[in-house]
Specification:
By secondary structure, the protein is α/β, with parallel strands linked by helices. It has a domain at about 80-185 and about 220-245 and about 285-300: 3-Layer(aba) Sandwich (Rossmann fold). The protein has helices spanning about 20-30, 45-50, 90-110, 150-165, 195-205, 220-235, 250-260, 290-295, 305-315; strands at about 10-15, 35-40, 60-65, 75-80, 115-125, 170-180, 205-210, 215, 240, 250, 265-270, 285. The strands form three sheets. The protein has a seven-stranded parallel sheet with strand order 3-2-1-4-5-6-9, with helices on both faces. It has a three-stranded mixed sheet with strand order 10-8-12. Helix 3 runs parallel beside helix 4.
Length: about 325
């Protein structure tokens, strides 16, 4: 699309210090038609990121959340509460309360600003299924309502938000279900497959895993930003889309890549336990590609290309 004919747009990013938000800031700031209004609890962390990556100061403004309702925006992107890692039982309730607070903040804004587009970063966990098979358009939720477990909470929260957004069909709201996302900006202390590998490479340690293969889909940051831009240009829609790369990747294909390219040391232990706060998922990706027909989205990179490219930036500086 020829963006030269598109008027300048103000894009509010809530949760601007989060992993995916940093990628949005980094790449959207390259678009001459966009100005970013960045909302965060910690300006110091955000300014550190901005200075380190030399983001043009004319491309953004910093705001406290208390200022949110006093400005106008063409687009609002909600990056709050998208990480499904809960460190203690005391945080279980925050999965609901934090998501609900900021979602309602944005929905209340839309009441008086109905032309604004709201892009919410949802999760593949919204399917609330075991992922023995990848998600598809006819996948059904499998929550046992009389046996709710903490592993269900995150997915239920995302499903509830999506259902609420479809009920508000008079507004422009898009939910993007993210299955896997990795970039140079990730918090290396977060406990995920790729951060564990990254830490092992940094410390020359041994990566331990079990014998069970799993499949993941890591969208390239540029593909993800391209999808967000397609939503921005479309603007007038109320819908949900699964986020996908050109091709997912298995755990052992990833491991073989790192053994070949970085001499990763690996130990396969059949008793090694790997868990997730939202439940263990074998095929955590989607074959639901509705965004292709509705938005003309076409990913350019496979999951392996995405991961390999970001690791190259991180380790080959």
């Amino acid at each position: 699309m020829d963006t030269s004919v598109i008027r300048s747009k103000t894009i509010a990013i809530l949760g601007a210090t989060s992993h995916i938000a940093k990628n949005l800031i980094y790449y959207l700031s390259e678009n001459e038609n966009f100005h970013l209004a960045l909302f965060a609890r910690s300006f110091s962390k955000l300014e550190c990121f901005i200075n380190e990556h030399m983001i043009n100061k004319s491309k953004y403004t910093l705001h406290a959340f208390e200022q949110f309702k006093f400005h106008s925006y063409d687009v609002i992107i909600n990056c709050i509460g998208i990480v499904d890692s809960i460190k203690s039982k005391d945080e279980y309730s925050s999965v609901f309360s934090v998501s609900e607070y900021y979602d309602n903040l944005i929905l209340n804004f839309l009441v008086t600003n109905p032309k604004t587009l709201y892009i919410n970063l949802s999760s593949g966990a919204a399917y609330s299924t075991s992922f023995d098979q990848p998600a598809k358009e006819i996948t059904k939720s499998e929550v046992e309502i009389n046996r709710l477990l903490p592993t269900h909470f995150y997915g239920i929260t995302k499903l509830y938000m999506e259902a609420k957004h479809r009920a508000y069909n008079q507004f422009n709201i898009v939910d993007l279900r993210i299955f896997g996302f990795f970039s140079r900006f990730i918090d290396s202390t977060s406990k995920y497959l790729l951060t564990d590998i990254s830490e092992c490479l940094k410390k020359n340690g041994v990566f331990k895993t079990n014998h069970i293969d799993i499949v993941r889909d890591y969208i390239h940051p540029r593909d993800f930003v391209a999808l967000v831009e397609l939503c921005i240009y479309k603007h007038e829609l109320n819908d949900v889309f699964d986020v996908y790369s050109l091709k997912p990747v298995s755990k052992f294909d990833l491991i073989n890549y790192f053994v070949k390219e970085y001499n990763l040391k690996v130990e396969i232990d059949r008793t090694f336990s790997q868990t997730s706060s939202s439940g263990y998922k074998y095929n955590y990706y989607s074959t639901n590609i509705r965004s292709k027909s509705v938005l003309t989205y076409e990913p350019r990179y496979t999951s392996l290309e995405s991961v390999g490219g970001e690791f190259k930036v991180m380790f080959d500086k």
